[in-house]
Design goal:
Number of domains: 2
Strand content: under 5%
Helix content: over 70%
Shape: flat
CATH topology of the largest domain: Tetracycline Repressor, domain 2
CATH architecture of the largest domain: Orthogonal Bundle
Distance between the termini: 43 Å
Radius of gyration: 19 Å
Largest sheet: none
Order of helices and strands: HHHHHHHHHHHHHH
CATH class of the largest domain: Mainly Alpha
Number of helices: 14
Length: 284
């Protein structure tokens, strides 16, 4: 039971999504195949860093988690893991991440992973989440970083194309997360977290989601514009963006916020997955 609790502390679903984006960054960074050592140890080191950040996030949010229905049974609020145990676990994960990346990948990736860990676990979790309704916008930089980490793990340097992948996820994050925030509006209000629907209302949040999907549509075609991808990706991106914009428009104009926000949230996950899949298909 304790092992399961530690596993839950790592937020495995979130980390799995991060590792997918990291893998995409690795694959897009080279015209051939990623060296096996980088593929395995790079993702392992990046994944351990993401797990460490997730554990710290659990620590910081343990009191809030106890107030929200979907999080009250997490390991810390439920008492399955103590705060001291969680701190030790996060420290070990972070140490192993830095060790693996520094010794067997490259120091740039280790440094960027450390910065990402601090940005998410420290800046976002400790401060931004409770300080401003723009928390998810600013904090989205940390969530978008794994693609760049995958890129630097393969190449050893920062490239504009790698930064473009970060930009796509950065712009995708607000409409994705605000749709969930509309669904969880009452829970965030009860926990006194200044999410956009709580501070500015659901109608304003729906407008922001729609505007961000328009911005995302423009950003997501940049790989074609700069020559990073070709027509296969462009056609797929235009189709995915059309669906995303349509769903966000329905959310904006209709009154069934709870159902429509859920539709937007679920499709946003498939949208990002599709964008990356077609980037890879076009690349190879």
């Amino acid at each position: 039971m304790t092992l399961v609790a530690y596993y839950e502390l790592c937020k495995p679903r979130v980390v799995a999504l991060m590792l997918i984006t990291s893998l995409v960054g690795m694959l897009l960074a080279t015209p051939s195949w990623v060296p096996l050592r980088i593929l395995i140890l790079g993702n392992l080191g990046i994944g351990l860093g993401a797990c460490a950040a997730a554990v710290v996030n659990h620590l910081v949010d343990r009191r809030i988690d106890a107030l929200m229905g979907r999080t009250q049974f997490r390991p810390l609020p439920s008492g399955r893991v103590t705060s001291g145990q969680a701190i030790l676990f996060a420290s070990v994960l972070a140490f192993l991440s830095m060790l693996i990346l520094s010794l067997w990948v490259n120091k740039l990736t280790a440094l960027l992973t450390l910065v990402t860990l601090i940005a998410y676990a420290g800046v976002y979790s400790l401060y931004l989440k409770r300080a401003t309704p723009q928390n998810i916008v600013i904090g989205g930089i940390a969530g978008a970083a794994p693609t760049l980490l995958g890129w630097t793990a393969t190449t050893g340097h920062i490239d504009p194309h790698g930064l473009l992948l970060v930009l796509i996820i950065f712009v995708w994050t607000p409409p994705h997360f605000w749709a969930l925030a509309i669904q969880r509006y009452k829970e965030y209000a009860r926990a006194d977290i200044p999410m956009l629907p709580v501070t500015h209302g659901i109608p304003f949040t729906k407008l922001c989601i729609f505007l961000y999907t328009l911005l995302l549509a423009a950003v997501s075609v940049l790989p074609y514009v700069v020559g990073m991808s070709g027509l296969i990706y462009l056609v797929a991106a235009l189709l995915l963006n059309s669906i995303f914009i349509f769903k966000s428009y329905l959310l904006l104009t209709k009154k069934e916020e709870h159902v429509l926000a859920g539709n937007v949230f679920r499709f946003s996950i498939w949208y990002l997955f599709g964008i990356f899949v077609f980037l890879l298909i076009d690349h190879y």
